[in-house]
């Protein structure tokens, strides 16, 4: 690979890294300002989301009502 191509790839990689970080921080700020969380395995979020499957309440996350 030519040196110019390597520099271009390095610049593109840095740009994408900074763009992804900016989107991540913006998303965190959006949710945090509304009192929500972006953490995985949040008990409150998983219990609320787990009771709804296809928009219908069910007894637990693994079973559907017929």
Task: Describe this structure as you would to a colleague.
The protein is mainly alpha-helical and 66 residues long. It folds into 2 domains: 1-35; 37-66, no CATH class. It contains 2 helices and 2 strands; from the N terminus they run ααββ. A two-stranded antiparallel sheet has the order 1-2. A hairpin with a 2-residue loop joins strand 1 and strand 2 (56-57). The longest helix is centred in the first third of the chain and has 31 residues, at 3-33. The model has no long low-confidence stretch (mean pLDDT 75).
Defining key terms:
single chain; 66 residues; 2 domains; two-stranded antiparallel sheet; 2 helices
Structural topology:
Elements (H helix, E strand, L loop, with lengths): L2 H31 L9 H8 L1 E2 L2 E2 L9
Antiparallel strand pairs: 1-2
Total discrete domains? 2
Write the H/E string, N to C: HHEE
Order of strands, widest sheet: 1-2
Low-confidence segments: none
Average pLDDT, to the nearest integer? 75
Give the overall shape. rod-shaped
Terminal Cα separation, in Å?
Answer: 59 Å
| Rg from alpha-carbon coordinates | 20 Å
Helix content: 55-70%
Described by strand count, sense and barrel closure, the largest sheet is:
2 strands, antiparallel
Question: Count the helices. How many?
Answer: 2
Strand content: 5-15%
Number of strands: 2
Secondary-structure-based class equals: mainly alpha
Summarize the structure.
Helices cover 59% and strands 6% of the residues. The chain has 66 residues and is mainly alpha-helical.
